[in-house]
Amino acid sequence: MRLPKPKTFAGRRLGWSDVDLSTKPYARFWNPVMAGITDDARRAVANSPMAEPLFPPMAKAIGAIVDSPVQSGYTLTGSGAIHVNLLTEMPDVTPTMIDWWFGWHSDSPERYRLWHPLAHVHAQWTTPPPLGTTGRARYLNRTSEVDEYIGSTMIRGAIQFKEPAALGLHDPALDEGHDATAVCARIGLVDAPIDMGYLVHHVTSVPGGSVMRSRFWIGGPNLAARSTRLRAAVPVARRIVQLTELDARALLVHCSQEMTHLAGFLPALYEQES
């Protein structure tokens, strides 16, 4: 992946310090020993890249996430994009817990590092959520700036959380907010006024927990300037940002690692902190 070189900041690092471990009320959930990717993700890596027609662009795929013919896998498109699908089973996790997590984890880097101890470095809100809010109200229409490794590449991403309808996702199950949720975002860069693509984590309740269906549409026609006055630079940016099969595979593996790890501690963390 060719991206503008990210800035570096003193004190931003992987892992927790001894002070963190002795002072944070949720320190017992810090576990740098992560399980491997799921069997489903392993099969997806082995069987990918797949045929491009199985991974339609967001405008066509957004209304059929649950019924997608490929729940886990990735493709590279002729237009220079990568499309990544992943299904993650999350025992004992509810959609409400997922909404709570996305509103909670960007309050401090330590919280963000719980999620993927081997790749997450830093997180912060561009504008902190109002005091007293929780769940979707904390993250919707806000931006979380994150430093993380996708594979061996450091990314400084601007995760701009959106209403599902803003991405074209109209699912009646989401209206209730209890049996399902969808975390939707525009993915941009922090160090350049470029938006790279979109993500959706669609979560539905099943007996014993939830199923998360993650979708990513990155690069190619999904890439755009964040400012209208920079639109003329988009063709140049598309030539510079060259995504490869390695990028798609790294994103699928990263997502499987972090969501599987999250499912392992989220029910107990939610009970303690919510």
Outline the structure in words.
- This protein has one domain: Alpha-D-Glucose-1,6-Bisphosphate, Chain A, domain 4, CATH 3.30.530.20.
- The model has no long low-confidence stretch (mean pLDDT 92).
- Strands 1, 2, 3, 4, 5, 6, 7, 8 and 9 form a 9-stranded antiparallel β-sheet that branches.
- The radius of gyration is 18 Å and the shape is globular.
- The protein is of the alpha+beta class and 274 residues long.
- 30% of the residues lie in helices and 27% in strands.
Determine Rg (CA atoms, Å). Answer: 18 Å
CATH fold descriptor: Alpha-D-Glucose-1,6-Bisphosphate, Chain A, domain 4
What value does the average pLDDT take?
92
> What is the N-to-C succession of helices and strands?
HHHEEHHEHEEHEEEEHH
Parts with pLDDT < 50 across at least 5 consecutive residues: none
* Largest beta-sheet characterization: 9 strands, antiparallel
End-to-end Cα distance, whole Å, is 38 Å
Task: Tell me the helix content.
Answer: 25-40%
Number of domains: 1
Number of extended strands: 9
Gross CATH architecture: 2-Layer Sandwich
Q: Please name the fourth-level CATH homologous superfamily.
A: START domain
